[in-house]
Amino acid sequence: MHRLTTTQAANVHVIFVAFETLRKPRDVDALIPAWSLDLKTWQKQVADVIKEQKGRRSLIIIDTTNPLSATEASNLPALLSSFIGPTTSLLAVYHLDVLHRPQGCGHNAYAPAPLTLLKYLATTIFTVHALQHVLACKAARDRSHAEPLFGLEEGTEGVLQGLGANGKQEIVLEMEHRRKSGRGVREWFYLPLQPAPKPGVSSGTASTTHATKIVRSGILLLEDHPQYRTPEQEAEAQAGNGGGTFELGLTEKQRRDREGVVLPYFDAQKGGGDGGRILYDMGSEDDFDEDEDEI
Amino acid sequence: MSTRNRTPAALKPYLRLPSETSLILLTSTLSCTVNWLTPRFIIAAINGSGHGDHTDTQSVPGAREEGSTVILTSWMRNQAYWKTELRRITAGMDMDKVIATGKLAFVDCFTNLTQLAPEKALSEQESRITQAIAKANGAGRRIVLVLENPDILIALALTTTYDLSDFLLRLRNQVHSTVLVCNADLPLVAAATTSQEGMQNTPIEAETAAFLVQQAHAAQYVLGVRELETGAAKDVSGVLRVTRGGAAYSWDDEEDDVEEVKELEALYLIQRDGNAKVFERGTSMI
């Protein structure tokens, strides 16, 4: 299931255009119930809210573009682009598994699918995966097995979702970002959704997650995730050894011996600060000569 | 009206009154119907999460103990069916009496379904359900809406996916929470899989699949029943799977104290008296 959570960055006005959400999500400044309004009305409401911001940065979130792509199939790019400006960004969610079926007889059979248009329009595309499913697929790939299928794809009667979907602990993000230069960046990320439990706080109360805390708690590349590596890679990463023929480390005894060594003239290094001096401890066999120059 | 011992312990966390505006999706298949689960949701909502069972340590502090008003709307069955079914499961609950107390309302969208003009069907039914909600609103109890098989409207070509989901949103907006019962047989959902991409599906296949998947996206959790992979068995009626739906992520301040609903895959057995047992795979239910 594909679903995005939002974080509110500092001083960004968040406008939520709801097609399937009834209650205002946390951190959202304006909720526009587009499901109950016609196209012109909610378009105007969004435009009005943006105008009110007078140049303050705003983020428009559309909770699903599937109904729009059915009713406004040919008009979709123009419609969405009309909101985007120098101070406005748009985050639109498209459910990949909701079947697209354009409505009306006026539909052009030769027009590209809405998803194709949306992907063409987008600067960044995030596809959300469940970690459990990604790991299971990788384990199968590593052993050259066929990758398992989940949810609807399982083809089991009565199964809508695979177990492990929509985990609240973590998700995997597949990112495709198009730079201005035209070069694309493709990367897979691991995103924990729960901050690490603080010491002294029971795990039960740690689940009181605030959306803004979530991202700070550490996004990392999927290939750096301990569970994604094979045990061999993991052991290698733990050892941190380049694989040379020398033993660069120390044994425990060597380390203790090294710590026990007292460097010569250690107190001199603490510094007397009065220039060069000769420090000499008289031994029992030394014969003190009064005639010699004073030390 | 004792319901004690009639609700399997493993099911109790899922029968608690869910958070505001939430949707719970129950899916059924031809060989395994979810009919045994729907009445349990109705009874749990009417009686409140406490069930009068104070030893239930699982209940969250501050959990809503008081009951709700249930508005049961069926596109598949009439009131006589529900009367028998509720009496059987609760061992003696009289549906007519509960309706008289205002804790339950039944909206029959089944009986005249085929006699309605297609263009009027949806609006006529919506106004009847809205009336029932308005009537129940006066009582000051929370309202739980149970919708049984509105997906039949798509199969009868009385509506389309997006009209029906707007219809549901309008209704959901008026009540505390909604339980939606749908059929999820393979032919009804297969159109949504990638293997079917580019294939010409019939409108009913495509529309039903789109509707069902869309509702799963909007659902807080999905409870699906299906047949055992190995077919029918004497001591197992079917498999129950509970998964988190697409709306499991709605982080609201109010929801912070609500425990996360755990995923579950378990077997169940419906006995001749209507009693249900839910047990882990591999364990004996006795």
TrEMBL record, chain A:
Pathway: tRNA modification; 5-methoxycarbonylmethyl-2-thiouridine-tRNA biosynthesis. It holds the Pfam family Elong_Iki1. It is found in: Cytoplasm; Nucleus. Residues 231-253, 273-295 are annotated as: Disordered. One of its GO terms (molecular function) is tRNA binding. GO terms for biological process: tRNA wobble uridine modification. GO terms for cellular component: cytosol; elongator holoenzyme complex; nucleus. Keywords: Cytoplasm, Nucleus, tRNA processing. The keyword Oxidoreductase does not apply. Residues 283-295 have a biased composition (Acidic residues). The keyword Endoplasmic reticulum does not apply. Its main location: cytoplasm. Belongs to the ELP5 family. This is Elongator complex protein 5.
Automatic annotation (TrEMBL), chain B:
GO terms for cellular component: elongator holoenzyme complex. Pathway: tRNA modification; 5-methoxycarbonylmethyl-2-thiouridine-tRNA biosynthesis. It comes from the Eukaryota. Belongs to the ELP6 family. GO terms for biological process: tRNA wobble uridine modification. InterPro entries: ELP6 (IPR018627), P-loop_NTPase (IPR027417). It comes from Recurvomyces mirabilis. This is Elongator complex protein 6.
